[in-house]
Amino acid sequence: MQTERFQTTQTRTREIDAGLRQHMLGVYNKMTAGVLVTAITAWLVSTSPMLMQLLLGGPQRYIVIFAPLAIVWFGFRPDKMSSKKLMLAFFGIAVLYGISFSAIAMLATADPTFGMAVAKAFFIAVAMFAGLSVFGYTTKADLSPVRTFAVMGIWGLIAASVMNIFFQSPMMQNVIAGVGIILFSGVTVWQTQDLKEMYNPSYSKEIAERLGWAAALNLYISFIALFQYILHFMNQR
């Protein structure tokens, strides 16, 4: 009898582990798709002078820059929206980031040196993100305190970034980039652990998909932030 119970428990554990791996893979696939959409959008817009002028040629560029934040805050509600609507919102954010990055893509195409800096920053961001995610997945330490520290820090980072739009201080930008790398590294580690702990095999497919899109968005934003801040330092070399 005890042997049967032990075997049943082992089977159940293997099923949960397999389900967790599938769920995590699905989240990272969603996030990767978002990064690809951003890259493709940046390339398409950067190769069209008309689109560059239309989207980034005047004050409207600030709408493009801040629109992703508006969607995240007001148009991305996993508790109320269906998984299909969350998917549309996610890729909408990815497209908007791609439009913002089109200026970077245009400069990278025109200047081989800057293009190399972009490539290096991207691969460094990928390596950092992968390492941080592995640590967040495997560590046994409780990373919940990191969330409180990181969230408070990011709010301060946003405020400093907005202020620096007007002051244009290179020193402040260096500080913002350095602190940003630290904060979003912490966020990536915590988010990975939180994603793992939130998995529940009893959730319906719809609920699991909603959580998956929410997690993919969080990880996508962290990766994009890491890339931007790393690129800032790579471009100074």
What do you see in this structure?
The chain has 237 residues and is mainly α. The chain is built from nine helices and no strands. It has helices at 2-46, 49-56, 60-74, 83-100, 102-110, 112-138, 144-167, 170-198, 205-234. The protein is globular, with a radius of gyration of 20 Å. The N and C termini lie far apart (68 Å).
Percentage of residues in DSSP E strands: under 5%
Helix share, percent: over 70%
Instruction: Note the total helix count.
Output: 9
Largest sheet: none
Low-confidence segments, given as residue ranges, are: none
Number of domains: 1
How many DSSP E strands? 0
Ends apart, CA distance between termini: 68 Å
Order of SSEs, N→C? HHHHHHHHH
Radius of gyration from the alpha-carbon trace, in angstroms: 20 Å
The residue-averaged pLDDT reads 84
Strand pairing plus helix content: what structural class? mainly alpha
Shape: globular
Summarize the structure.
The chain has helices at residues 2-46, 49-56, 60-74, 83-100, 102-110, 112-138, 144-167, 170-198, 205-234. The chain is mainly α. It is globular, with a radius of gyration of 20 Å.
What's the arrangement of secondary structure elements?
Blueprint: H1 2-46, H2 49-56, H3 60-74, H4 83-100, H5 102-110, H6 112-138, H7 144-167, H8 170-198, H9 205-234
